[in-house]
Amino acid sequence: xxxxxxxxxxxxxxxxxxxxxxxxxxxxxxxxxxxxxxxxxxxxxxxxxxxxxxxxxxxxxxxxxxxxxxxxxxxxxxxxxxxxxxxxxxxxxxxxxxxxxxxxxxxxxxxxxxxxxxxxxxxxxxxxxxxxxxxxxxxxxxxxxxxxxxxxxxxxxxxxxxxxxxxxxxxxxxxxxxxxxxxxxxxxxxxxxxxxxxxxxxxxxxxxxxxxxxxxxxxxxxxxxxxxxxxxxxxxxxxxxxxxxxxxxxxxxxxxxxxxxxx
Length: 263
Fold this sequence. Notes:
Mean pLDDT: 96
Strand order of the largest sheet: 5-4-3-2-1-12-13-14
Low-confidence stretches: none
Strand content: 15-25%
Shape: globular
Number of helices: 9
């Protein structure tokens, strides 16, 4: 019996315009009636997740910032920040790039130095709260991760980051333009494993959907693991099953099929 449904957002439950399908709330209500917890597990910040799922936000569980922060009904389940020395090292390294912008992510806001209006408008898609500062090294809050936004395709420019930080930190791409760097060992999957133990959940009670590199560890946490049809090949190879494309409502269609929900 399914007790927990976990889904990534971008490229997974959201369409290519970044929107939820109009059926979402109706499907969610049916899931909720069955006593199943619905979780969003994303590289996005926590306030952005709340905004996306506004109509049901208080009933959901969240893994935010690629596994560094988790919340359920207002209760923090985990917080796993990166040390300040590592943050400063990443900032110094990324500042050398002419195509990349740096975000320092805390629990409730993302700090940036860039004041370009076009870039800040782009950030609104992923971040519900952004604070512009003169120097990211002066941010004194707990830092959950450092994100790199590449105006070009990140896959073409991320190798130096994996080479420099990969052995000491968790490094992953989380979209066509995004690279996330966290504390070593921190992933969505590690966060979900912690939650599984806390709630006594078994693998065959969990359904998981993803599409990107940052979902690789996540889909190993449940038997019903689905890669989207539009997912990267590495994820398709690891997942047990395939769901339809994100722009064809693949997540909700599969949930309705498996749970016998009619809308």
